[in-house]
Amino acid sequence: MADQLIRATAADGGIRAVGVITTRLTDEAKRRHQLSYVATAALGRTMSAGLLLASSMKRPESRVNIRVKGNGPLGGILIDAGLDGTVRGYVENPKIELPPNAKGKLDVGGAVGREGYLYVVRDMGYGYPYSSTVELVSGEIGEDVTYYLATSEQTPSAVVVGVFVEAEIVTASGGILIQVMPKAASDEALVQTLESRVAALSGFTPLLQAGKTLPDIFQQLLGDMGLVQLPEVQLLRFQCNCSYERVLGALKLLGEAELQDMIEKDNGAEATCHFCGEVYQASSDELAQLISDLRAESSV
C-alpha cells in the first residue's frame, strides 16, 4: 500500500479524522540514517504525527516542525512535515537500542525519556511561525502530541501512531488523528464514546497487519456516527530540500581562511545533511572557486 493520507468527518462535521500510512517513508528514513529498531519507531511515529498536524493547515507551503527532547538515551528527535505531503527528520543518537518494554513492544518511551519537552512550530506560510511547548507525558509520541493538542490548541483530540519493524524492514507504520470540533465539544456522550473506542484499540500497526485500510479503520471508529470519507487520497513521501548548491552556500559562509585550511589539510570538504543523511563532496578546486567568489565580492 502506498504511503498516503486521507481525511473524513463525522457527526455532521463535529468530528474531524485524518489517517496516514507512512511505511515506505519510515523505511527510507531507517535506511538513510541507519537507525536501530527503537530509533526507527521513535522517528517514524514523530513523522506520522507531523504529517497529521500539518493536514489541518491551509496554504500549500505550510509546514510543521516537531522537536522532542527527553531525558532518554535517544537524545532528541526533529522532524519537518508539510501540507504538501513531504516529511523529513532525524534522531540525535540513531544507534541506541533498548530491550522491549513490559508489553513486549519497542520501548520508545524509555528511549525518548519520560521527562522533557515537546516543541511544535507551525509555519503558516506567512507572518511569524506559531510555536508552543508542552511537557512530555510519556515519551511515546502519540500521547505527547495528544496532550499538546488539548493544552496548546484547546482541541479534544486523540493521536494514535505506531511503527512495526521486522527483519530489518519497516512492515507497518502510520497513525490516526481524531478531533472533536468546537460545535460538538459540548456533547459529553460523544466525547466519551470516542475516548472509549480509541482506548480500546490495541495500537495502530496491528490494524494494518490485520489487513485493514484507513477507510476500514475510520469505519470501525466512526461508522455509526454519520461518517463521510473524503475522496481525495494524498500521497506522502520522505523528501529533503538539501542540495549541492545549498552546501556550497553554507561552506562559503565559513570564510576564506577556513576554506583555505580545508584545501591544505583535507584537499576538499565533506558535508552530511542531518535530515536525510545525504553526503556531499566539494573538491579543492570548488573550494578555491568559493574563495575567488569571496574576494570578488569584497572588492566590489
Automatic annotation (TrEMBL):
Its main location: cytoplasm. InterPro entries: Heat_shock_Hsp33, Heat_shock_Hsp33_C, Heat_shock_Hsp33_N. CDD domains: Hsp33. Signal peptide: none annotated. It comes from the Bacteria. Under oxidizing conditions two disulfide bonds are formed involving the reactive cysteines. Under reducing conditions zinc is bound to the reactive cysteines and the protein is inactive. Disulfide bonds join 240-242, 273-276. It is found in: Cytoplasm. It holds the Pfam family HSP33. HAMAP family: HslO. Belongs to the HSP33 family. Redox regulated molecular chaperone. Protects both thermally unfolding and oxidatively damaged proteins from irreversible aggregation. Plays an important role in the bacterial defense system toward oxidative stress. This is 33 kDa chaperonin.
